Amino acid sequence: MPQVNEELRKMQNTYEKILEDLPETRESVIPALQLVQKSRGYLPEDGLEFISNYTETPLAKVYGIATFYSQFYLEPQGEHTVKVCQGTACHIKGANEIYDALLGELGIAPGEVTPDGKFTLTTVRCLGACSLAPVMMVDEDIHGNLTPDKARGILGDYE
Questions:
Q1: Which helix (H) or strand (E) segment is 20 a member of?
Q2: CA of residue 17 relative to chain centroid, distance
């Protein structure tokens, strides 16, 4: 047990350092979630608990915020996150074919991380780039007017 306590103490020290410039108030929940995720790559349970205590916000509320916004991840993600838009314009113009092509190319199920840790593939309701439909986002980069072949080729740029 002492090793587990030591690891927990180290993680708490890390979280304290990450959040040291934020006020310890409820208004800091979203910025705290962003900072912890930036540091860890996702929001682990101990991070959510720390944020809850730090901001004096019930854990259920912190968890609710983390699961409401699509920018937050509760599971480890790949080095690159690929989001395929499923909004109306993208759907009509073939987003499902794009998504299926990428699933096949990556050899993973929806939401999984590739075995090499490079990619996570998900869908989103709208990326706000309807005039470029169908669209996908890799990390912070928008790619539009996609075909299945074009989408597969774009993944190669991130390997």
A1: none
A2: 22
